[in-house]
């Protein structure tokens, strides 16, 4: 009982595995698309999302390295970016100018 049984002793040749051939489609996809359009079947494909207008990149070397995050409405964000573009300053400088103006007004 000291010898182990060889499980592969009865195999003379290793089995050969092959891939199955790809089944051909009996109907062309164009025909299916045409039939679905004629019978008003909805498509399962997601519709393309509306293209969002991207802002141009703002790259300023200002030495600012602290981050400040705040939740705002879309209108407020648009106003902030519009002001920054009009004054041609980075967003951090615009916030600094706004804080300076608020302090002057309060004093």
Question: What are the main properties of this structure?
Answer:
107 residues; mainly alpha; 3 helices; 0% strand; elongated
Oligomer: single chain
Q: How many H/I helices?
A: 3
**Overall geometry:** elongated
Gyration radius over CA:
34 Å
**Poorly predicted regions:** none
H-E order? HHH
Q: Structural class given helices, strands, pairing?
A: mainly alpha
Q: What is the number of strand segments?
A: 0
The helicity comes to 25-40%
Question: What distance separates the N and C termini?
Answer: 99 Å
- Mean of the pLDDT scores? 86
Strand residue content? under 5%
Note the main sheet.
Answer: none
Tell me about this structure.
The structure is a single chain. The protein is an all-alpha fold. The protein has a domain of 40 residues. Helices cover 37% and strands 0% of the residues. The chain is built from three helices and no strands. The longest helix is centred in the C-terminal third of the chain and has 16 residues. The chain is elongated, with a radius of gyration of 34 Å. The termini are far apart. The model has no long low-confidence stretch (mean pLDDT 86).
